[in-house]
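Sample 3 of the quickstart, ligand protoporphyrin IX containing FE:
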Amino acid sequence: MPTIPRDASFDGSVSLLREGYDFIRNRCERLGSDVFRVRLLMQDTICMTGEDAARLFYDDRRLQRAHAAPRMLQKTLFGQGGVQGLDGAAHRQRKGLFLALLDEQGVAEMVRLGNAEWSAAIDDWQNRERIVLLQEMQLLLTRAACRWAAVPLAPDEAQQRCEQLAAMIDGAGGVAARHWQARRARKAAEDWAAGLIQQVRDGTLNVAADQPLAVVARHAELNGRPMELKIAAVELLNLLRPIVAVSRFVVYAVEELLTHPQWRKRLQESDALLEPFAQEVRRLYAFFPFVAARVKQDFEWNGYRFTQGTRVLLDLYGTNRDPRSWHEPQRFDPERFAHWNGSAFNFITQGGGDPASGHRCPGERLAIELLKASLCMLTRHMEYAVPAQDLRIDPSRMPAQPESQLVISDVRRVAQ
Ligand code: HEM
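Result:
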């Protein structure tokens, strides 16, 4: 039986930090293989890229999530005990919570609240010289997400919660100061979320039963009992934090509008083009580079042996840019979505497969709709300038962002 090609380095962790998003793709190209072994974070790891690999990765008879996520991610991005690390019936039960809250009605309500915050922000930005868009979007979406979830925010609290939610995302792939800041932010945010859930449970905070905060507080586990307080807090943050993360897509959309100004006019005139533009932004800017699982039991795939317990990483970023699935994959071309085959495994910014039965993101439609609504705001409801700044994106920084976090100026509301 052939053996999986191995990366020659003793340990790839330093190269991963140096090469960032390109780490898996670089080695796949060098080794001429969609799969390779490497020692990463002190463990023998199999890395994979491409549509076929994604299909394998989301086969839950072969791969599982328990103990898969690196500890540094659990301590920052995900938290411990959340839906990301569950398998089988326990996962389906927990996932039901997210799917119910993020249904068509939930998405529409969140977009409505997002638009209201957007509109208020335009009024505010008109009076300011310089807007750091990433930060402003995070604040705007923190306010809207909390309102959507029925999470109360004191008038002076939004900035603090925004910084905590944003730090968990920003520190996910960070080391040193960025990592420790994310850990502190998670601890503070979990305490805050647990306090809110406790108040709902003991009746001191009155929230309608169908509101996300109440639904999380009362969601039953397989044993019929509510989630442990700490875990319910993790899940509440699993709703708020990723809504704030959509800010990154908005920033990238503004960058693409800057590079392709003809699209501004096209988006002004056509509702039908909003979705392909949003999709192309999401395809090119998958800001989580990979997802992790473990081999459930030994199996063979394409002649290679996968041994029980081995950690497997699926390349999200590289799969979205695989030339076998995407013609001229590095080119920004929203129109390519007119011909996309709709595969659940070749466009995996938010995971692959079926969100109901597997780990694919339950917030994908919400992310798309928030991005489309933001594109409407940017192209139809306001004008702005983009002053000279450093827009370079360091590919080794995870999550990536333009150095300047995208500054806009001269904001003016456009009357409709
Ligand atoms: C900003 C855009 C977003 C990106 C790039 C993103 C990306 C991802 C990725 C890569 C996964 C992991 C898939 C896997 O493990 O196979 C995931 C899972 C998840 N996402 Fe998102 N997501 C986004 C927005 C959202 C939103 C808006 C929500 C909810 C409000 C959300 C909630 C979740 C949850 C709860 C999971 C865990 C699902 C599970 O383990 O079954 N995400 N997301």
